[in-house]
Amino acid sequence: MKIQIxxxxxxxxxxxxxxxxxxxDCIVGVSEAISADIIDLAEWYLPMxxxxxxPSSGQYIQPHTQKWSEKINQGQMMIFVFPQYNWGYPAALxxxxxxxxxxxxxxxxxMVSYANRGGAKAATQLKQVLEGVNMxxxxxxxxxxLSELEFEENGMIVHPVEGLSQxxxxxxxxLALVINSMSIKDG
Length: 187
Known about the structure:
- By secondary structure, the chain is of the alpha/beta class.
- It has one domain: Flavodoxin domain (Rossmann fold, 3-Layer(aba) Sandwich).
- It contains 6 helices and 6 strands; from the N terminus they run βαβαβαβαββαα.
């Protein structure tokens, strides 16, 4: 199973890459059948609304949208790593999702939000959008409480492996559910 971990924030000084790397490190060892790539939206040029056709048409004119489509088509499961900004999720993540339509269909999605209290409000909003593009959001979501972590002066998490260890069981449980449901579909 090929998992794509999408970093949903593009702000400077963000901790999304740290959390995405932690997620990747946690899941790669779970099964030899799992591979995971990190997709950082800060590295993708996806201007807002620059396609002449609706994404549901699948007619992409812009080379960057065609590349984005190819990349997302490669994944079998998505893990969205994103902060909660003012009770919502980042605009960059919404824009990246809205660039496509069919590429998301039927793929399981795990949400890993982070905020002082975990980011549940942002996760609730994102879940509605993921359902709108026909993804299969998992009932399990990981909500990282930043108030329980220690940070360096530069804003990075001190010892992310230890600080985030309480979330490992939920991450493994979510993966097990997806692997089991895919086995049932394939079997």
